[in-house]
Design a protein that fits this description.
The complex is a heterotrimer. By secondary structure, chain B is of the alpha+beta class. In chain B, 20% of the residues lie in helices and 21% in strands. In chain B, strands 1-8 form a two-stranded antiparallel sheet. In chain B, strands 2-3 form a two-stranded antiparallel ribbon. In chain B, strands 4-5 form a two-stranded antiparallel ribbon. Chain B is globular. Helix content of chain C is 24%, strand content 29%. Chain C folds into three domains: 158 residues, FAD/NAD(P)-binding domain (3-Layer(bba) Sandwich), CATH 3.50.50.60; 114 residues, FAD/NAD(P)-binding domain, CATH 3.50.50.60; 90 residues, FAD/NAD-linked reductase, C-terminal dimerisation domain (Enolase-like, domain 1). In chain C, the strands form seven sheets. A five-stranded parallel β-sheet of chain C has the order 3-2-1-7-19. In chain C, strands 9-16-10-11-12 form a five-stranded parallel β-sheet. By secondary structure, chain C is an alpha/beta fold. The chains are: A alpha/beta, B alpha+beta, C alpha/beta. At the B-C interface, strand 1, strand 2, strand 3, helix 3 and helix 4 of B face helix 8, strand 22, strand 23, helix 9 and helix 11 of C.
């Protein structure tokens, strides 16, 4: 019906002077946007199917392809923008909730970009990281507020369990199911090689990856999928997922069509059954309840593993974090509203939650004010895009950062934001075997290691410039940051001065 | 010596190797110019069986049947590389009859051609074109 | 330092030289060459007439082959006898050469049947050596009518080679089909009609019974006028040297899997020997270039003290005429011999796969010959049909018909 017709978002531009009809684009497009016409021996396209994942563009041997925004436009309207109009058309035809994936794409403020980093001049000389030792190692877990000594005067060294990171970055939770086996293998092997951690998400831990346990954070979420004693013991730390930045306040839903084979076995649910993670943990309605779960997990693992509580950055995040710190958790992970997801209702993704920068500053300040900052480590995520975002997060008070979108980009993701279709042409957000094999973990691992190695170099350079040779001395050092283009209120929450001050 | 190895686990069946091969051996600069509108005669071929795909090219056998069987003495092995002397080959295709991998096929002019590791090809960049162009490292060039 | 002597200077001799040198770089090698030429590719003489090769490119090995391999070649010399007690070879000039290890690679000679009046034909040739080809080349022109007696591989390749040089080519054969040694009736008919389409005429089931000058009187009563006559009815292995020395011979020289004759230190290889056809078990003469090379090489390695066996020879041919290729290998067992045949026909192309007792024993391919070596290797390796996906193979030879483990080794390992 013509009312149902929605103009394609993209146009596939093929330079026929270059196209050799090799059909690589056709073979590589799981959305079947490219068609070979046997009679005319030329390539055609069905643009309504194109999601602009750029797979064809990347593989076209003659670079004959370009995906451009469709010029066919609605009459310009600042209020009724074309995306809004199209969403209405879609809902009018389907009657359903709109789904999207990856992070919030709306032009909301990115505070990282409004903060600038200091550098030393004259009086406090910068340090050259190529010549001087530079420490990027961090330990996550409860720390004593002051050195404590035994009766004989010796230093007490029996700390609660700690996670040792070679650099203040970890790969955040992405479940086996939402991403592929090969994506998981890439993350696991890279984490092990880098001396950092990756996170199972709520999909359980595939038996093949127990070998990477010392670099794995195992997650316990509201659906408790794949959780058993062996799973809890396999990881280096346990993360209780209370919320996710991309979809605070709601649970998760992995459709039954993706619960096949190993995914079903790993999640410990029957094949074909929908994996529904409830919005709340049905046993947690208070900080006291949370404390029970934290200690249950510690009990189950002989108090050998730090417990992380992950929450989405929402309005009362400072008070929430304070409660978590008092629940016995060792680490608090906060996920900002730009965080990614394999699938979320569009309205939730784009309108719920707050920026991680503000949440982090508020939480760090609150915990300091209450004198409990050392009781927990803070890990922040939700669109940490580069080394300077990491440095700014540390300076704002974080102990470490979680990255996922950046890691997926390293694996080949082109942010087409259609993970929910399960037809990821890059072999990441899919369970279709012929697509999964497109991500060779030997390549994936190498690219993740490369990315993190590059970030580590950049972190060291930024630190050196500030005259700082240990990442731990940068933590919470907000004097190293200045704001630009911000209101007094924003500066106040971030606890930083304006540039020039 | 370095050889081409294929791991079907990572082969996507995209057939880029076939086109990169044909281009590398075309001697023409610019892939579109070299291949547009032409039937290609690649020296590496992708086989498909259901979801399984893999590329096959000359294995440069330790004891090559093709070289021993060539009635023209046109196939020789030197420095580990089995090559066909296109000047000498008369296109009898005895090599096709004996190659256990099906890695030799007649080219456009009917003479036998096979992977020669892109050695001396003006378009190649130091490694065989199929290897350089494989998007998933299903084809590698290494010592084993 | 060992003294190696090789009688013959063809493909088997080259194989023998290369075999010796793979194991012994020092020993003295003497090659006795009846032809006054360095080694060339015999099967290429028709391609020479066709213009697909020339006197330079037809050489089977590069110019420096003998010097690189430190061989002494006695050109224009014929071995007349072997004295196995004295371990020496006597040459036609009377001189003798002593050997420690001897390889007899004397090849075969064209068989010319005695036909009445043959002496009256001035322009008559065999088609075996380069000299034969050069003589034919000299004697024919655009007006020549050529009669070829024999529609086997040699006769037909000669016909193809001459076709564009002469006015007409007529091929006759007593057999009622072309290529009777490698093709069955139906396949032969396809080839014959293709040859006819390209201007070659046939008189099959017919042969010359009498010549008179430039006329052949046929069994059928017909008369064929010609300007040049080529006899290509077959070849006979040159076994007399070994036979006279007391070596065991059948139709060819008898050898074991190491190419050793029944006489100590005497090996034989190439067209002069008979050996066991691995595809059916019969002992026969398989005078084919690939076999000759491999037999020679095997003999050479053993002569130099190595240990090599070549006991999986079987007949195989790749032959094309005017762009249509035929490939055949192994043995064709009919149903009454317990065999099974799978067949696909499509226009000028045909495929016949012959199986017996769960193995591929032979095949005939005409037209579509792509990757035929995969079939050949199944015959050579005695690959059980049950271990492959024969349905795929029926359609076309593919490695995907084999199990993944085989492919892992074949494509991911050193072979």
């Amino acid at each position: 019906m013509s009312l149902n017709y929605i103009t394609p978002e993209f146009e596939i531009k093929r330079n026929y002077d270059r196209c050799i009809s090799c059909r690589v684009c056709e073979r590589q497009c799981a959305n079947e946007a490219h068609i070979y016409d046997e009679d005319s021996k030329i390539m055609l396209a069905d643009e309504s199917k194109c999601v602009d994942c750029q797979r064809c563009v990347s593989l076209c041997p003659t670079h004959a392809l370009k995906i451009v925004k469709n010029e066919c436009a609605f009459r310009e309207n600042a209020n009724w923008q074309s995306d809004t109009i199209k969403e209405i058309y879609k809902q009018a035809s389907s009657g359903g909730v709109l789904l999207s994936s990856m992070g919030n794409p709306k032009p909301l403020p990115v505070y990282w970009d409004k903060m600038l980093v200091n550098a030393s001049q004259v009086t406090n000389p910068p340090i050259d990281p190529l010549r001087e030792p530079m420490e990027t190692k961090v330990f996550l877990g409860k720390k004593p507020s002051r050195p404590e000594r035994n009766a004989d005067g010796s230093l007490k060294t029996d700390l609660p369990p700690q996670l040792e990171l070679s650099m203040p970055v970890m790969f955040s939770a992405m479940s086996y199911g939402s991403i592929s086996y090969n994506a998981h293998e890439s993350l696991a092997r890279a984490a092990a090689e880098l001396g950092i951690y990756y996170n199972t998400g709520e999909g359980g831990l595939h038996e093949d990856f127990y070998a990477y346990g010392p670099n794995t954070i195992v997650q316990v979420a509201s659906g408790r999928f794949g959780v058993h004693e062996g799973y809890l013991s396999a990881g280096a730390a346990i993360e209780i997922k209370m919320g996710q930045g991309a979809k605070p306040g709601i649970g998760g839903h992995l459709p039954g069509t993706k619960i096949v084979g190993d995914v079903s076995r790993t999640r410990m649910i029957p094949e074909g059954s929908d994996a529904i993670s409830p919005a709340p943990h049905h046993d947690i309605y208070s900080i006291e309840d949370l404390r029970q779960l934290v200690y249950s997990l510690k009990e189950a693992t002989q108090y050998k593993k730090p417990v992380i509580v992950k929450v989405a950055a929402v309005h009362n995040i400072a008070a929430i974090a304070s409660g978590i710190a008092r629940s016995g958790a060792d680490i608090i992970a906060i996920d900002g509203f730009r965080g990614g997801t394999g699938a979320a209702p569009t309205r939730i993704r784009d309108n719920v939650g707050i920026p991680i920068e503000l949440a982090l500053a508020a939480v760090d300040q609150r915990l300091r004010d209450e004198g409990i900052r050392n009781d927990v480590s803070l890990v922040v995520g939700g669109s940490i895009r580069c080394a300077s975002d990491v440095v700014k997060a540390i300076a704002l008070g974080a102990d470490a950062c979680y990255v996922a979108t950046a890691a997926l980009l390293a694996l080949g993701c082109h942010l087409c934001r259609t993970c929910q279709t399960g037809k990821c042409n890059w072999g990441i957000a899919t369970q279709r075997p012929e697509l999964v094999k497109r991500l060779n973990p030997n390549i994936g691992r190498e690219r993740l290691v490369n990315l993190m190695t590059a970030w580590k170099h950049e972190i060291k350079e930024l630190m050196g410039g500030m005259g700082i040779n240990s990442i731990e001395t940068l933590r919470g050092n907000r004097l190293m940051l200045r704001g630009i283009n911000m209101t007094e209120k924003e500066l106040e929450i971030l606890g930083i001065s304006h540039a020039g001050e | 010596m370095k050889r081409i190895f294929v791991d079907e686990k990572w082969c996507l069946g995209c057939r880029l190797c076939e086109y990169n091969c044909a281009y590398s051996n075309s001697g023409v600069v610019g892939m579109s110019k070299a291949l547009k509108g032409k039937k290609i005669y690649p020296r590496i071929r992708v086989e498909e069986k259901g979801d399984t795909t893999f590329a096959v090219s000359c294995r440069h056998c330790e004891d090559p049947m093709c070289s021993k069987s060539c009635i023209a003495g046109a196939i020789t092995k030197k420095d580990g590389i089995v090559r066909v002397d296109q000047e000498k080959c008369v296109g009898c295709l005895t090599c096709v009859l004996v190659c256990p991998y099906g890695a030799i096929a007649p080219g456009e002019n009917g003479t036998a051609q096979k992977c020669e590791l892109c050695i001396g090809n003006s378009n190649s960049s130091g490694e065989p074109a199929c290897v350089g162009g494989c998007p998933n490292k299903a084809i590698v060039f290494e010592e084993r | 330092m060992k003294r190696y002597v090789i009688i013959g200077n063809g493909t088997a001799a080259v194989g023998c030289i290369e075999g010796i040198r793979s194991a012994d770089t020092d020993g003295r090698i003497v090659v006795i060459s009846a032809e006054e030429r360095r080694v060339y590719s015999r099967p290429l003489i028709s391609y020479y007439l066709e213009g697909k090769t020339d006197l330079e490119r037809i050489n089977y090995r590069p110019d420096n082959f003998y010097s690189d391999n430190k061989c002494e070649v006695l050109y224009g010399k014929k071995a007349v006898s072997i004295n196995s007690d004295a371990t020496s070879v006597e040459l036609d000039g009377g001189e003798t050469i002593e050997y420690d290890e001897l390889c007899v690679a004397t090849g075969s000679s064209p068989f010319v049947p005695p036909i009445e009046g043959a002496d009256s034909v001035k322009s008559k040739f065999s088609f075996m050596t380069l000299d034969d080809a050069l003589k034919i080349e000299k004697s024919v022109n655009k007006e020549s009518r050529v009669l070829i007696v024999g529609a086997g591989l040699i006769g037909l390749k000669c016909a193809e080679g001459l076709k564009d040089r002469v006015k007409s080519v007529v091929v006759c054969d007593l057999a009622d089909r072309v290529l009777s040694s490698i093709l069955d009736d139906e396949c032969a008919a396809i080839m014959q009609s293709h040859l006819e389409d390209n201007g070659v005429s046939f008189m099959l089931g017919d042969s010359a019974v009498r010549f008179e000058g430039n006329a052949a009187y046929m069994k059928s009563g017909k008369t064929v006028d010609f300007d040049a006559l080529v006899t290509a009815v077959g070849v006979r292995p040159n076994i007399s040297l070994v036979k006279d020395a007391g070596g065991k011979c059948g139709r060819g020289v008898t050898v074991d899997g190491r190419m050793a004759t029944s006489i100590d230190s005497i090996y034989a290889a190439g067209d002069c020997i008979e050996s066991r056809d691995a595809s059916c078990g019969d002992v026969k003469i398989m005078a084919l270039l690939p076999n000759a090379y491999m037999e020679g090489r095997c003999a050479g390695i053993n002569m130099a003290g190595g240990d090599c066996r070549f006991d999986d020879a079987f007949p195989m041919n790749s032959i094309g005429f005017f762009g249509l290729h035929a490939m055949t290998a192994g043995s064709y067992f009919s149903e009454k011999d317990g065999g099974e045949t799978f067949e696909i026909k499509k226009g000028k192309s045909i495929k016949r796969l012959f199986t017996k007792d769960g193995y591929l024993t032979g095949f005939i391919l005409i037209g579509e010959t792509e990757r035929a070596g995969i079939y050949t290797s199944m015959i050579r390796n005695r690959t059980p049909i049950a271990s492959v996906d024969y349905e795929i193979l029926k359609n076309s030879p593919k490695l995907s018909a084999f199990d993944a483990d085989y492919r892992r080794k074949a494509l991911g390992g050193v072979v």
